[in-house]
Amino acid sequence: MAIQRPKGTQDHLPDGSPKLSLDTRAAAFQHVQDTARQVLTRAGAQFITTPVFEEADLVKRGVGGSTDIVRKEMFTVYYFGDHGGFILRPEGTAGIVRAYLQNGLKQLPAPLKLWTHGPMFRAENVQKGRLRQFHQVDYEVLGSTDPLVDAEAILLMVEVVKALGLTGVRVKLGSIGDPADRDTYNAYLRDLFGTHVERLSDDSKDRLERNPMRILDSKSAGDQVLIAELGVKPMLDFLGNDAREHFQAVQKYLDAWDVAYDVDPSIVRGLDYYRRTAWELHHEGVGAKSALGGGGRYDGLAEQLGGPLVPGIGWAFGIERLLLAMEAEGLDIPGLGGPLLYVVALDDEFVGHAATVAITARRVARAEFAYRAVKPGNAFRDAERRGVRLVALIGSDEAQQNVLSIKNLATGVQTTVATHELNAFLSEQLEHTGSAVAPNSAVAQENA
Ligand code: AMP
Predict the structure, then answer these.
(1) With a threshold of 0.70, does the pTM exceed it?
(2) Among 23, 70, 128, 130, which residue has the most ligand 1 atoms within 8 Å of its CB, making it the best to mutate?
(3) What homologous superfamily is domain 22-177+239-328 in, according to CATH?
(4) Percent with pLDDT over 90 in the chain
């Protein structure tokens, strides 16, 4: 058998491929990116890209040494003469904050809104919706602690998902307070779990030392039983005044904008640099345990990376999970369809001319050409299969008179058009029938 792709990765394929599902359909994948671009660009976010591999230290500090991601799921990059000090990024935030600090983006007006999309890598146990290379859309805002920024970030995440047509999405909203609040909470958890150490999983025994809050996040069934038995109080009960006011302000804005959410005390982000607002986006189609996306405020991250204090907040969702949710809701994405024009030479000597005509027509519309001479009957059959609207034939008469015989496959009407008037003719056709096949329709939408 020919070489296969690595486990936990996917190919994104063209329409018409056998066994295509929404999450492996390249057009669907692009549609999510385009939709995010449209929603986020209108909100003032600018696109940024950062490398897919970064210094190991950035990933360790950015994601946290106590997390499963750093302890078990990192892909290390080796190359000749190198010590393996690079990691394939498991998420986007650390790289973006690094780029912000390294490139002096602090000089740009704050709050600075950035967005990106791209592949992320985690060596996880592969299952449905859990891949080793997956793709995220990321939104990050740097330079503000205002709760209005938090509320807007949540709103935008919901707007992207709504623009895709999804309805069964719930926001679970929480707050993890300020560092002092978390110290109090961790002391409480240490006392509580400290009397039941023998029942904790090995990972959680370790967490009890380093970061007790992460026990609440444990994937071990035994740990979760213990948590339920002990009736552990939520972090929300431990918020100080500042964090509580911030949390209330976020909710006030969301209420004003009719963004539905459930306050969920179980939302925990155990890392030191997280502050205050944290949330997850859930959907039944992806399973209760797996989130569609998540976000949170990370005011301590820039300092953690060795920079100055730069407050920040961001979210990410997985494109593959979004597509699974869309599939579960029976949503589909229209295909690109065929080109407006298909130019066919009836004789070998006119194939080059047919190509030139199609290439010129691309200034106004999507146009393709046949790479070999075809008989008229076959040309129409071929064009129909490709979903073409107009077929232009070039035989010796047309070539001599410098015209095109154009047949509209929808109406059956045949016209003769002078070659130099083709683009005006096509523009007129587009005006009459809408511009769905105009080039750069994504860009056109964005500017609308
Ligand atoms: P996280 O950075 O862990 O908060 O993940 C944010 C989002 O990325 C999740 O809600 C998922 O939608 C997506 N995601 C995370 N890990 C994976 C994975 N292994 N496979 C597919 N999607 C993932």
Answers:
(1) yes
(2) 130
(3) Bira Bifunctional Protein; Domain 2 (3.30.930.10)
(4) 68
